[in-house]
Amino acid sequence: MDMDRPELADFLRRSRERISPRDVGLPAGARRRTPGLRREEVVQLAGMSADYYIRLEQGRSPQPSPQILSSLARALRLSEDERDHLYLLAGHRPPAGRQVGGHIEPGLLYLLDQLKETPAQLITDLGDLLAQNDMATALFGSVCSIRESDRNIVRRWFTDPGLREAYPAEEHDRISRVHVADLRAAVARRGADAASTELVQQLSEASEEFRTLWELHEVAVRRTSRMRVDHPTVGPINLDCQILATPAEDQRLLIFTPPPGTPDINHLELLRVVGNEQFTPAAD
């Protein structure tokens, strides 16, 4: 990723001009000819070399390190979006976004409830199922059980043979690789934190298939896919899965829709009428 020196210089200058001394606890002073902070005040707040900051604003500096960018973001009171913009202009990948773990925003729960005819799930980037609507329960079964160990979709895929019976045997290898490649990307984004490290260790101990695939080091963020679910009541249903971003870095909203113009539309409608028919037995 290349550094855009002119844009970075302009953004730093404009950001400095938007911050008043009072915003950062500095005296305003009587002889301030320009709005915002002076360069020396930014340097003081960021704890960096005055000469280096001047060269940044003049567009003639070497690439700043992530540590310097972090200090500048704090000194200039940048929002998350502004901070990410600063990193991108400097040629760096922005820091990981906000993580909320198992907390679910009320707005997302409301959205799930409003999707009356479309299966939808809210999961973490590690595959923990946080919530699902009635259509998803009717399609996949009540897998969001009380025991936390039963809520992880990836863990259940590699440790619960009964779960795979609902999917075509010829698709099992592909689904396994999708799960592992997506998990690999999530682990890297998290910086191999405790939660992701523990999940990988558990899966490696429990599944030889997982260990083999993990060693391949395949990486692919799951954004969309097509799947077939053999429902015990309505029969096979082909679905397109769209993975939508949420305001949190570690949560995703999954929407399952039938391909346009296919009989699967009628099958999904029949499933809605049937209601919460168990797809697979919930774990004890």
Query: Overall pLDDT, averaged?
Result: 88
CATH class of the largest domain: Alpha Beta
- The total count of helices amounts to 13
- For this structure, the CATH topology of the largest domain is Beta-Lactamase
Compute the CA-based radius of gyration: 25 Å
How many strands, which pairing sense, and closed or not: the largest β-sheet? Answer: 5 strands, antiparallel
Low-confidence stretches: 276-284
End-to-end distance, in Å? 49 Å
What's the total number of strands?
5
CATH architecture of the largest domain: 2-Layer Sandwich
Spell out the blueprint of helices and strands.
Elements: H1 5-18, H2 39-46, H3 50-57, H4 66-75, H5 80-89, H6 106-114, E1 120-124, E2 129-132, H7 134-140, H8 153-159, H9 161-164, H10 172-190, H11 194-206, H12 208-215, E3 224-231, E4 235-245, E5 251-257, H13 264-274
Antiparallel strand pairs: 1-2, 1-5, 3-4, 4-5
What does this structure look like?
The protein is α+β, with helices and mostly antiparallel strands and 284 residues long. It folds into 2 domains: 5-89, lambda repressor-like DNA-binding domains (434 Repressor (Amino-terminal Domain)); 106-274, Beta-Lactamase (2-Layer Sandwich). The chain is built from 13 helices and 5 strands. It has helices at 5-18, 39-46, 50-57, 66-75, 80-89, 106-114, 134-140, 153-159, 161-164, 172-190, 194-206, 208-215, 264-274; strands spanning 120-124, 129-132, 224-231, 235-245, 251-257. A 5-stranded antiparallel β-sheet has the order 2-1-5-4-3, with helices on both faces.
